[in-house]
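Hi L.,

As promised, Signal recognition particle receptor FtsY:
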Amino acid sequence: FGRLRSGLAKTSAKLSGGIGTIFTKKRLDDDTLEELEDLLIMADIGVPTTTRIITQLAKDKFDQEVSGEDIRAILSREIETTLAPLEAQLAPDGTHGPHVILMTGVNGAGKTTTIGKLAQQFTAEGKSVLLAACDTFRAAAIEQLTVWGERVGVPVISREQGADPAALAYDAVAKAQAEGIDIVLIDTAGRLQNRRELMDELGKIVRVVKKLDDSAPHDAVLVLDATVGQNALSQTEAFLETAKITGLIMTKLDGTARGGVLVALGDKFGLPIHAIGVGETVEDLQPFRASAFAAALTA
Ligand code: GDP
């Protein structure tokens, strides 16, 4: 919880600091409600959750004395209620041989780093992992994944820059099937500038992987960078058009005061949330827990 709390410190400072300024022994009136509404919107919490909180407060506490602490408790409860149904650990259970996880997201979102961290965590649980460097568009991406593979001690299957990502994904899954590897993590290109191409590429990867196992990919995870704030919503929309996204991982929550955007995402899309990144180390990729997240965000 300590890492989570310090990771979310920027967002919680904004939220709690703001609440503290608004609610200094005040009666709850229209002005304070409006100030609170502005604060929550500015903290990227999103309109639906903000509206729920404001409406509830107006109903229950209008003209009563409320403290910043009361408000933080209400906010925390509302965030937890919104996000608790979306808690979903990325936990391959061994029913698929291999469990295939497609990793998507725009360049720079933290996809490769997240793959490395997941590989390390799965390995620590005793599972065997294979990484597939299917972002063949960028030489740096291939190299970065290779470095992670060496660091974690898991094999990486790669080809030269410009190679066909789908053919490589096929090879990776075939190799994992032949060698009894538990999990395949597929890195993909994140060129959202050319949506048509991205859609074709992801679609083709999915099609060829299905030739080997028609239940694959078992997860299609979208990696989002929290520092982009509300842009995470349009990125999610765009990726939902290009691939059948089944869950989210949000990175870099430590680098921003815009961590509230995860609430807005949860509200809008209702996609399962697997994990959150609150720093650079492996331990900083944490399984998502709504109650701990809500508490840290409003601490
Ligand atoms: P990709 O282009 O999506 O593969 O992104 P990378 O995995 O290369 O990540 C981009 C940068 O974000 C790297 O410098 C990572 O170390 C950094 N990064 C990834 N996740 C986190 C996180 O949770 N917190 C912080 N502070 N940095 C992160």
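The two ends are 12 Å apart (CA to CA).

Thanks again for sending the construct details.

K.
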